[in-house]
Amino acid sequence: MLDKFRPWLPAVACTILCVIAISGNLIGGAMTGAAPPWIGNGDIAFYCNLPMCFALVGLVQSKLQRENRELRTTIEELVSRQSTKDRAR
Predict the structure, then answer these.
(1) SS3 content of the chain, % helix, strand, coil (to 5)
(2) Measured over all CA atoms, what is the biggest interatomic distance in the chain, rounded to whole angstroms?
(3) pTM of the entire structure?
(4) What percent of the chain is predicted at pLDDT more than 70?
(5) pLDDT exceeds 70 at position 39
(6) How many CA atoms lie within 13 A of 21 on its CB side?
(7) Contacts of 6 (CB under 8 A, 6+ apart)
(8) Which residue from 26, 27, 24, 45 is spatially nearest to 37, judged by alpha carbons?
(9) Which of these, 52, 49, 65, lies nearest to 5 by C-alpha position?
(10) For residue 29, how many other CB atoms are within 10 A of its CB?
């Protein structure tokens, strides 16, 4: 069961860290009376788009795991067919 979620764990962890960073940036700026952090600062855009990179890698990794499972099933079927043919001889 964990194998299905494993490709997505980095994206979830990155999302949590980015939410913490954005929240800290916004709350910290509001508490100190500083200028809004999104003015002239690319951090917000960076933090908002960073989890997407991990999600796309998770998507590719998930697809590869699914293909590996299918290939293993196909190989097992072919091996079992071959062994039954060998026994029949």
Answers:
(1) 85, 0, 15
(2) 86
(3) 0.70
(4) 88
(5) no
(6) 17
(7) none
(8) 26
(9) 65
(10) 16
**Six token digits for residue 46:** 């960076």
C-alpha–C-alpha distance, residues 45 and 54, integer Å = 15
Residue 80 tokens, joined: 């079992």
- The per-residue DSSP string of 15-53 comes to HHHHHHHHHHHHHHHHHHTPPPTTSS--HHHHHHHHHHH
Q: What is the mean pLDDT of residues 31-48?
A: 71
At which residue do the structure tokens 């099933």 appear? 73
Q: What is the pLDDT of residue 36?
A: 63
pLDDT over 70 at 40, yes or no: no
For residue 68, how many other CB atoms are within 10 A of its CB? 10
User: Quick count: other Cβ atoms within 10 Å of Cβ 46?
Assistant: 12
Give the pLDDT confidence of 42-65 residue by residue, as tens digits.
778 888 899 999 999 999 999 999
Question: Which residue type does 53 have?
Answer: C
C-alpha to C-alpha distances, 2 to 6, 7, 15, 36, 39, nearest whole angstrom? 6, 9, 19, 41, 41
